[in-house]
Each structure stands twice: as structure tokens, then as C-alpha cells.
UniProtKB/TrEMBL annotation:
Organism: Leptotrichia trevisanii
Top-level taxon of origin: Bacteria
Keyword Transmembrane helix: yes
Annotated TM spans: 6-24
Protein name: Uncharacterized protein
Record keywords: Membrane, Transmembrane, Transmembrane helix
């Protein structure tokens, strides 16, 4: 059971990191276009 929790945690962590990076890139892109 613990292995499943570790895998789920890794997937959730990966998705969170991916979405965070996308969000930051979009913010930077918007900031650059406003100049």
C-alpha cells in the first residue's frame, strides 16, 4: 500500500510542479508583453 501512496505523491508533485512552471512562464510572458 505504501508504494501506491509514494507513486501517487510523485504524480501529484510532478503535476503541481509542471503547472507551477507553466503559470510562472505565462506570468513572465504577460509581463514582457506589457512593456
Amino acid at each position: 500500500m505504501e508504494e501506491v501512496l509514494v507513486i501517487v505523491a510523485m504524480i501529484v508533485g510532478g503535476l503541481t510542479g509542471f503547472l507551477t512552471v507553466k503559470f510562472i512562464q505565462k506570468k513572465l510572458k504577460d509581463k514582457n508583453e506589457n512593456k
